[in-house]
Amino acid sequence: MRTTAERGYGSAHKRLRQEWAPIVEAGGVVCTRCTRPISPYEPWDLGHDDQDRSIYTGPEHRRCNRGAPSRRRAAQRTLKTDNRPTESARTPRPTRTW
Hints:
Layout (H helix, E strand, L loop, with lengths): L10 H15 L18 E5 L7 E6 H19 L6 H4 L8
Antiparallel strand pairs: 1-2
């Protein structure tokens, strides 16, 4: 298992989160993912860029941040799926076999 620092949550992450904490607790921040305000009593995460984890995007609702990978995988599955009907599905078939 990788350490928190190896996953991108080292001292720089902790320091930046501490800088944001008073601003978030004052209620003056919007989520960088959904652009809705983050309540002072709401759990929040310091978000990373989806492609480059060394780039911080700013405070995000915890649900927005932690749900992002699932939404990204679902979108990729949707893109891969070809929903056009196959030739056999377009060919009319009799409803009864005699």
